[in-house]
């Protein structure tokens, strides 16, 4: 009986050690009224950049809420590898490089959408999430 308990405890320890654990924090969705959708535009290899793969996406931010958005702050993880400073449009990368924000003159009205685009290294879209919203 002791050997069965010991074997079970050993197997439990091994399962914890062998588990595939993701080490980055999972973003939460504290703003369920916001929907972020990626639309694939195209992919290509750039011979002038060591034959790197690049992919262009349009991203639609949909305000399903009943209030107008004055500013939205989007966060991202290591999957957001923008090709260069000219490879994102209709959004601004913050000075610290960790967030995307709307241009100062842009709002997203209730029920409306806003589209921006970017070109990334690789062929998968970036993981984007809402960090904060400021309403009118």
What can you see in these coordinates?
The protein is mainly β. The chain has a single domain, classed as Sandwich (Immunoglobulin-like). The protein has one helix spanning 2-18, and strands at residues 34-46, 52-63, 69-76, 88-89, 92-93, 99-101, 113-121, 128-135. The strands form 2 sheets. It has a 4-stranded antiparallel beta sheet, with no helix packed on it. Strands 5-6-3-8 form a 4-stranded antiparallel beta sheet, with no helix packed on it. Strand 1 (34-46) and strand 2 form a beta hairpin. It is elongated and about 45 Å long. Mean pLDDT is 85; it is low at 5-27.
Strand order of the largest sheet: 1-2-7-4
Q: Please report the number of helical segments.
A: 1
CATH architecture annotation: Sandwich
Radius of gyration: 21 Å
Could you give a short account of the major beta sheet?
A: 4 strands, antiparallel
Overall strand count: 8
Overall mean pLDDT stands at 85
Helical residue percent band: 10-25%
Question: Spans with pLDDT under 50 lasting ≥5 residues?
Answer: 5-27
Strand content: 35-45%
Structural class: mainly beta
CATH topology: Immunoglobulin-like
Give the SSE string. HEEEEEEEE
CATH class: Mainly Beta
InterPro entries: CBM2/CBM3_carb-bd_dom_sf, CBM2_carb-bd_dom_sf, CBM_49, Dd_Spore_Germination_Stalk
Domain Carbohydrate binding: 34-123
Protein name: Carbohydrate binding domain-containing protein
GO biological process, one term: extracellular matrix organization
